[in-house]
Amino acid sequence: MEHLQQGDILKIEKIKHPVLVASKDFFNTSGEIIGCPINVNSNPGPLHIWMSTENVEGYIQCEKLALLDLTIRGHKKIGRLPISEMMNVSDAIQGIFEYI
Q1: Mean pLDDT confidence for 24-51
Q2: What are the structural domains, with CATH classification, of the chain?
Q3: Does 100 score more than 80 pLDDT?
Q4: Which letter, b or e, does each residue of 43-77 get, where b requires 16 or more Cβ atoms within 10 Å of its Cβ?
Q5: Does the predicted model carry a pTM greater than 0.90?
Q6: How far apart are CA 59 and CA 81, in angstroms?
């Protein structure tokens, strides 16, 4: 199985939108990832972060985190988010779980 890294952008079987791998590399070695959909038809906001790469553009929907088992779904890497932008996504996700 391909080793996936935080920041990879995937097209996953039976999922309409591309998915950003939000989970850390060590977690992804399990064959599962935690991902966020990337949707061009969304609105800007603190949990919707705009991104654009050569192959994919849209809003990363940070509130729609999902655990995805890639051992049972076909997938293909279609891009990668730069670390500087991944840090913004990570901050937004962390903000969902912070105390007051």
Answers
A1: 95
A2: 8-97 (2.30.30.110)
A3: no
A4: eeeebbbebeeeebebbbbbeeeeebebeeeebee
A5: yes
A6: 12
